[in-house]
Amino acid sequence: MFLTGLCLGSFGGMLAARVPEGEPLTGRSRCPDCGRVLGPLELVPVLSYLLQRGRCRRCGKKISPAYLVVELSTALSFLLLYRHFGLGLYGALHMIVAFHFCVLAGTDIMYGLLPNKVLLSTALFAFLVRLAAGLADGLWGACVGFGLFYLVAFIKPGAMGGGDVKMAAVIGFYLGLHKTLPALGLAFILSSVYCVPLMILGRLKRTDTMPLGVFLSLATILMSVLTWPL
After folding, report:
1. Alpha-carbon distance 122 to 198, whole Å?
2. Is the pLDDT of residue 54 over 90?
3. How far is 31 from 159, CA to CA, in rounded Å?
4. CA 173 to chain centre
5. Dihedrals phi, psi of 124, to nearest 5 degrees
6. What is the pLDDT at residue 138?
7. pLDDT band at 102 (very low <50, low <70, confident <90, very high)
8. What per-residue confidence (pLDDT) applies to 198?
9. What are phi and psi of 37, to 5 degrees?
10. How confident is the model at residue 166 (pLDDT cuts 50, 70, 90)?
11. DSSP letters along 123-165, please?
């Protein structure tokens, strides 16, 4: 399952790079800077990135760490969810939802965006999970997630983007009423653990944007694994 997650994570990295740009999902992978078509040895999940030290072999430009994040997070999510749910239809749906959240983390790192197409697809598979877990609970969770983030955005304009608000609604729908607030709280805790040391070191300013979608995705997956009944 870990290797399966790595392979799908490689595909997820491609989605994260192409969907926000409106690029076709077919065609060979290329370096975004020099345009060189990548060879098979440059497309091995995780290993290629590490061996190339995160740079293109031809032009030396940096490769976004989002590819590494999507690949590893998808692999670990698949492993944890498999151990928790098994490999039945219910477990597979949770893995697909987790895959979507990993892609959203990648788009937020690369572009600072949470594309509507990916959010809508996430909501669709969350709906399939909710058919077994209870639609009403999911709808209440969506209201809480959307309402809380919309309130923050209304009180402090610029504190978060519209994509964050929509993502909070999708998270609430997926997790349900009682898990939504803990998941959102965990996301803010994780973001603080990441940001505070960087601010102390002077590498991050208060005015800098933060990819909150990464921490929302991580918190949602952790909450799914830790609290969802078998």
Report:
1. 31
2. no
3. 33
4. 16
5. -60, -45
6. 95
7. very high
8. 83
9. -70, 130
10. very high
11. HHHHHHHHHHH-HHHHHHHHHHHHHHHHHHHHHSTTSS-HHHH
**Cα–Cα dist 183/189, whole Å:** 10
Core vs surface per residue 114-143: b (16+ CB within 10 A) or e: bbeebbebbbebbeebbeebeeebbebbbe
Q: How many helices (H) and strands (E) does the chain have?
A: 9, 0
Identify the pLDDT of residue 172: 97
Tokens of 149: 């983030």
Q: What pLDDT, on a 0 to 100 scale, did the predictor assign at position 229?
A: 62
Distance CA 4, CA 216 (A): 23
On the question of pLDDT at 214 being above 90, the answer is yes
Closest C-alpha among 5, 9, 3, 7 to residue 78: 5
pTM above 0.90, yes or no: yes
CA separation for the pair 137, 148 (Å, rounded): 17
CA distance 73 to 214: 10
Rg (CA), the chain: 18
Task: Give, as one character, the DSSP assignment of residue 189.
Answer: H
Structure token digits, residue 12:
């997820």
> Which DSSP string do the residues of 22-78 spell out, in sequence order?
T--S-S--B-TTT-PBPPGGG-STTHHHHHTTTB-TTT-PBPPTHHHHHHHHHHHHH
Nearest-5° Cα angle at 122, 117 to 128: 135
Higher pLDDT, 83 or 198: 83
pLDDT in tens, 25-53: 887 888 777 777 888 878 888 998 888 88
